[in-house]
Design goal:
Layout lengths: L2 H17 L4 H4 L1 H18 L5 H29 L5
Helix pairs in contact: 3-4
Length: 85
């Protein structure tokens, strides 16, 4: 299948799926909880004697660092692509 057509079909499916969802937060709650537990686990490994408040703070910074790292990689990838004519 042509990549452009595949992308359009996927976008259509995503919009249709989200249109059928009245509470998007509940739909993604399990995924958010899993991601947050990953950062909390990493924070506890880094600071085994820390309090719960400290772990929460460190986990939040780990989460922000992760998304900043992804944004940087995305920016680098966009910059490396040739400009459209």
């Amino acid at each position: 299948m042509d990549p452009e057509i595949r992308s359009l079909r996927a976008r259509l499916g995503a919009h249709a799926s989200w249109a059928n969802t009245t509470d998007p937060a509940s739909r993604t709650a399990k995924a958010r909880a899993a991601a947050n537990s990953r950062f909390e686990k990493q924070a506890r490994e880094m600071h085994p004697g820390a309090t719960d408040e400290q772990i929460t703070r460190v986990a939040e910074h780990l989460r922000k660092a992760h998304f900043s790292r992804m944004a940087l990689a995305s920016a680098k990838a966009r910059r490396s692509k040739p400009a459209a004519a």
